[in-house]
Amino acid sequence: MTAPKTLYDKIWDAHVAHESEDGTCLLYIDRHLVHEVTSPQAFEGLRMAGRKVHSPEKTIAVPDHNVPTTAGREDPSQMTEESRIQVEALDKNAREFGVHYYPVSDVRQGIVHIVGPEQGWTLPGMTVVCGDSHTATHGAFGALAHGIGTSEVEHVLATQTLIQKKSKNMKVEITGKLKPGVTAKDITLAVIGETGTGGGTGYVIEYCGEAIRDLSMEGRMTVCNMAIEGGARAGLIAPDETTFEYIKGRPHAPKAGQWEQAMEWWKTLFTDEGAHFDKVVTLKGEEIEPVVTWGTSPEDVLPISGVVPAPESFKGGKVEAAKRAIEYMGLTAGQKLTDIQIDTVFIGSCTNGRIEDLRAAAEILKGKKIKDGMRAMVVPGSGLVRAQAEEEGLADIFKEAGFEWRMAGCSMCLAMNPDQLSEGERCASTSNRNFEGRQGYKGRTHLVSPAMAAAAAITGHLTDVRDLM
Ligand SMILES: CC(C)[C@H](C(=O)O)[C@@H](O)C(=O)O
Ligand code: SF4
């Protein structure tokens, strides 16, 4: 009998094309997602070497980071020079090298990590890479998915392989049931609050347990999306009926005839009884509260009922970091989190820009208005999410509440397009990073779930969404 394997071991073993004595491997890559920020030099490298894209049929390109989200955005004059150059380069490269391409004018355009699963490109047991750290999102399907650098993008374009060393196995188990008002975003933030941003360094995380099994595919994507903020190479979840159900019928999913064969492989994708994990973290689902970040690192997580911590309550170098974070965020130690006033709300990003996220926010906003003076925007993760939300009447709920209803893109998640915070503005954001200046120069970010973002938009301060339910 062979030794029991983890899900990660199984996917890894199935993709190793060559292994060197020092353990460095050449991995076969099933899907390569490409966006405009990290690909221009890679394509240019190919061009200069006179090479072609090895597997254009496995390469998917979509502009997302720089694209404006307002009407008339096809007009290049809406972008800064730098943004325009990147978007135009992707357009030229995608067409010239013949890869799958969803330009801004295509309703399927959106954030690469939302478009991939939506179109059925991401499937269980695959290796998926992209020149983007949030590629971890695709791990929700039981795929080994992670970010790569621009020189690796060029390598994958040219060879459909990647040089990698294997990470260690980590298990994150969320037992039991979540309480009402607690979501996948709260799980993933709570895990980072527990492990810290370095807790996953050197590991691939497998998320498991009843609370994970109970999540929809979209919730699972939210969880895996932030594996990277926990420091992990990738995050993954074993596929099950929820996964297969989601995939079936998507444009690039296996068709009738091929489906059964695919399922044979997919059904083997679970961690064997007794397989070894190098690290295990367990959280009780029923103990997770709706959470927010108070500082400038995704690990600065607290239940919404908490107070801004005293820097002295931290250890070692963290004391100084906490002092700086509190100062940057314009807060005082001991201040109740629910007393923090918010002036901007951003609902979107590859963490929380899917239809269920919009439904969750709309559910809270229905028939209500956002606080006077509040700037609030919804940026659907793809054109198809946007269309679906319009069809379901969610767009009307957002607009009637006072939200701006935008076109798809990364938007204020990292402010590479015109959607930015101005100095000192404070945002409740459904994105994944609260770094200094991430959403605009000297802007301040509190990471929350979509329902919590909606609650803050109504009250004008960080709010326990359960008070509005
Ligand atoms: C621009 C891109 C390389 C970057 C990433 O890799 O994550 C961005 O998507 C982000 O979220 O910060
Ligand atoms: S939505 Fe944000 S986190 Fe996701 S890819 Fe875009 S910039 Fe990165």
From TrEMBL:
<keyword id="KW-0456">Lyase</keyword>
<feature type="binding site">
    <location>
        <position position="410"/>
    </location>
    <ligand>
        <name>[4Fe-4S] cluster</name>
    </ligand>
</feature>
<feature type="binding site">
    <location>
        <position position="413"/>
    </location>
    <ligand>
        <name>[4Fe-4S] cluster</name>
    </ligand>
</feature>
<protein>
    <recommendedName>
        <fullName>3-isopropylmalate dehydratase large subunit</fullName>
        <ecNumber>4.2.1.33</ecNumber>
    </recommendedName>
</protein>
<keyword id="KW-0028">Amino-acid biosynthesis</keyword>
<keyword id="KW-0432">Leucine biosynthesis</keyword>
<dbReference type="GO" id="GO:0009098">
    <property type="term" value="P:L-leucine biosynthetic process"/>
</dbReference>
<keyword id="KW-0004">4Fe-4S</keyword>
<keyword id="KW-0479">Metal-binding</keyword>
<comment type="similarity">
    <text>Belongs to the aconitase/IPM isomerase family. LeuC type 1 subfamily.</text>
</comment>
<keyword id="KW-0100">Branched-chain amino acid biosynthesis</keyword>
<feature type="binding site">
    <location>
        <position position="350"/>
    </location>
    <ligand>
        <name>[4Fe-4S] cluster</name>
    </ligand>
</feature>
<dbReference type="InterPro" id="IPR001030">
    <property type="entry name" value="Acoase/IPM_deHydtase_lsu_aba"/>
</dbReference>
<dbReference type="InterPro" id="IPR004430">
    <property type="entry name" value="3-IsopropMal_deHydase_lsu"/>
</dbReference>
<dbReference type="GO" id="GO:0003861">
    <property type="term" value="F:3-isopropylmalate dehydratase activity"/>
</dbReference>
<comment type="pathway">
    <text>Amino-acid biosynthesis; L-leucine biosynthesis; L-leucine from 3-methyl-2-oxobutanoate: step 2/4.</text>
</comment>
<dbReference type="GO" id="GO:0046872">
    <property type="term" value="F:metal ion binding"/>
</dbReference>
<dbReference type="InterPro" id="IPR033941">
    <property type="entry name" value="IPMI_cat"/>
</dbReference>
<feature type="domain" description="Aconitase/3-isopropylmalate dehydratase large subunit alpha/beta/alpha">
    <location>
        <begin position="9"/>
        <end position="460"/>
    </location>
</feature>
<comment type="subunit">
    <text>Heterodimer of LeuC and LeuD.</text>
</comment>
<dbReference type="InterPro" id="IPR018136">
    <property type="entry name" value="Aconitase_4Fe-4S_BS"/>
</dbReference>
<comment type="function">
    <text>Catalyzes the isomerization between 2-isopropylmalate and 3-isopropylmalate, via the formation of 2-isopropylmaleate.</text>
</comment>
<keyword id="KW-0411">Iron-sulfur</keyword>
<dbReference type="GO" id="GO:0051539">
    <property type="term" value="F:4 iron, 4 sulfur cluster binding"/>
</dbReference>
<dbReference type="InterPro" id="IPR050067">
    <property type="entry name" value="IPM_dehydratase_rel_enz"/>
</dbReference>
<keyword id="KW-0408">Iron</keyword>
<dbReference type="InterPro" id="IPR036008">
    <property type="entry name" value="Aconitase_4Fe-4S_dom"/>
</dbReference>
<dbReference type="Pfam" id="PF00330">
    <property type="entry name" value="Aconitase"/>
</dbReference>
<dbReference type="InterPro" id="IPR015931">
    <property type="entry name" value="Acnase/IPM_dHydase_lsu_aba_1/3"/>
</dbReference>
